[in-house]
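Cont'd.
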Amino acid sequence: MLAAIGSLSVLGLILGAVLGLASRYLRVEGNPLTAQALALLPGSQCGQCGFVGCGQAAEALTAGTAPPTVCPPGGRAVAEALASLLGKTVDLAGVAEKAPTVAHINENLCVGCTKCFKRCPTDAIMGANNMIHSVFADACIGCEKCFEVCPTECIEMRPIAATLQTWFWPNPATVTA
Amino acid sequence: MKLFKIRGGVHPEDRKHLAANQAIEDLPLAPLLHVPLQQHIGNPATPAVRRGQRVAKGELIGAAQGPMSAPVHAPTSGRIMGIGSFPAHHASGLSVRTITLQPDGEDRWLEGLEGVPDPFALTPEDVAARVAAAGIVGMGGATFPSAVKLNLRTKYSLHTLVINGAECEPYLTCDDRLMREHAAGVLDGARIMAHALGVSRIIIGIENNKPQAQDAMTGVAAPYPEIRVAHLPMRFPMGSEKHLVQTLTGLETPARGLTADIGIVVHNPATAFAVHQALRQGRPLVARLVTVSGAAINRPRNLRVPLGTPVQHLIDHCGGFREDPAKLVSGGPMMGQPLPSTRVPIVKGSNGVLALTATEINAGPSSPCIRCGSCVDACPCGLLPLNMAAHARAGDLEGTVRLGLMDCIGCGSCSFVCPSHIPLVQFFNYAKGEMAARGRAKQKQTETRRLVEGRAERMEAIQRAKREAMAARKRDTAKPAAAAEA
Amino acid sequence: MIETANTSAPYTHSAASVQKTMTTVILALVPATAFNLYLFGWPAVFLFGVTVLACVGMEALALTIGGRRLLPTLGDGSAVLTGWLLAMTLPPWAPWWTGVLGAVFAILLGKHVFGGLGQNLFNPAMVARVGLLVSFPVALTSWVGPHPLFWTGTPGFQDALNITFGGQIPDGFSAATALGFVKTELSRGIPVSQSMGHLPDLMDMGLGLRAGSLGETSLVLILAGGLFLMWKKVITWHIPTAMLGTLFVVATLGHLGNPERFADGTFHLMSGAAFLGAFFIATDYVTSPVSKSGQIVFGCGVGLLTWVIRSFAGYPEGVAFAILLMNSLTPIIDQYTRPRRFGRTRRGEPLAPQGEK
């Protein structure tokens, strides 16, 4: 009886010590998933998800407080990648893919205030004080930050037009014959 | 000639009798020609003419941009009406940059176009350069710049040129007519290409439903022991180049590779004929043969069509529609593209215009898959179309790729045999397009990240500079004060 | 009107359709069914009618519950075929409710629970057959010998109504199947070699003049139906040949090893539902592998399991169990018998290029 209690106690102490040591020496700083989730996000800190930046969104994702579909500019592809990283299932059919847009500056209305190009996270707007600004469509991620600050409302978010090279057949599962 | 078996394939009714006995006819000029600047795979050509300029037939109107591109020439003499956006010869119905030409009716060739007396005296590079300058692209429908394919000898050790006269698509007879009526020209073009490729062996593969073409080609090839005409069994997709090569030689092209990987280059008879004209007469590619057929067409024909001619003009020439077609198709019914309207122009890759009735198409409403496995037996690539489509339907595109989506050649054999009429090919086309779009999105994301980091660094540098300037100013203001105190 | 781009190529299709396939299979079943309905008289006709109608009714019910349109699915003939096959595997004089309950098992549990046509893992008719057998062993093992229509001693229309809807087989009609007889005798200690002597001769077995399920007895007509299906390219030789071949070979080997304990190969082939199963049930598209090599594996499995169950398990007949067991292996067989992709090795690596400089 005593021997049993003794041996189990010793066993418990040893294993407890091992666990304690392990938690000290094998500690993982932060959640490794957060870093992986962050790598999948666009990193433009555009704030469309409602979080301050991509880092906060990644933390919310790993904490489970944000769904994999959190990132609007990432679209379906990012949602799918996040879902598989987090081991969650995601109903992509419900996420209507928002057509990607790019900003376009109406040159007749632009007063050259430089507000937009200061806000642009990807340096996609070119311009200087009192000069008309313009957008590099290739670098624009459609985050709408410039759209929000423009005092003359001269910025328009235009859907990216398909070309013969980018057009493809629609999904027959969603097309009603 | 010994042939090898290929996997799968189907036997659609060939319906070639509609147009096969119609000799090639020259189509009269249309009132306006719309010549797109991109009629090939690669970079679009850049306009080389101005609005209002007069051009002669064969004059350069669009210059190639880089090696993966092709120039565009005036299909007839006339005046350039404008350079703008015009509906493309494409399923999407989108518009592309197009040069509009008003023919002057003279059809006058550019002066100074002269052939080479002996193309075989030219270096292979010279031949390829002339082919490139003539704007020749793969005329079986792929529209890959032919000169690029002729230059493959620099990277691969080649041994055989295959001329793909299979024409396995139902209805189409333009290659058949070309080989019957211009056998010598096709053969000459093939020999010039073989010279450019540095190979001596040429195999001309022709399906058994074209006995006259087989005889014509055998006749002109008789003096050349290294040229052989192979009689191919009728089976779709015999004209898929990798499957044709396997049938002829037993060699299997590695997945995701080229037939050049096994030492073989494949060209279409129409391409060979265009090469013949470019080298012997110095004439660029300005017209092509088009089969106009289908049960909804009054008089099916094989026409020589100036590039840029609106499809409606061809249909009018063929007596219009017998009945309203259920579908207007460019190319063959198995792999063709639906045409968004009859306004669109004929381009270098259009080998057929088919006006099909609902009976010919026989598309039923789609019902659930019953796993009959017909598609598995029909697939020439050894894929499992039913499983791939199920994954695509469920939105699991990665799963579709794992099952071999990228090995699918989109031949349509699976959709053809499917008793449930499941749009398998469209699932695969959608999945391929969506995967490509995701690839582009990923690329853009990497680019975005780079830009964002660059901006962050710059902001940081500006902040630092400001701080330093501030500190310096403080020092500067502190110093004189200290000096004054002293 | 010219329809613009919303469906991609091909713009020509073969004449094949689900409905045509189902109709062809039903057509192939007609001779064997007609002969057996004649052979087992009015009770069999009633049971057959009840079962098929119940299956169509259940299909309609399931489609209504699922909120789907009735016509396209009911019209494809799959429910009729399921009911038909189920009826063919029931004892001919079984009571009417076996057919109705069987329809519930087959259509609701066997098919629509999985998601409807094409989604089911197990053959619906076999799910019903086995479900009924384990739930109502007496009703499902009460066999009768041949009592052809309009023969003296055959129950008339009235009597037949009593049998099917009253649930009582009159005394003196019951008979044992060959498989059941051999098994019972063996359990009484009578060796197979001895009990075999009391069975109908090969000729009668082949023609179908024996006790057995409603549609399984006439080997000649079933074989004719199967060959018809092969000729029509609805089925291929792979599954039937693999199944019957394996059954024959293992049974023959067993018999050679111990003739007192194991019946011979010919007996196994000709008795029970071996033929019906091989040509009409194991070849069910939905629940068998899609590739030809997979179908051979599948057929061999069914043949082997049939013999094992017949020889060692408690039930005299094992075709239904064997098919269900192999149905459950179909996904994994499909996984391992994928065709080789063009330009790749069996393992999926691209072939080595040969011409690169």
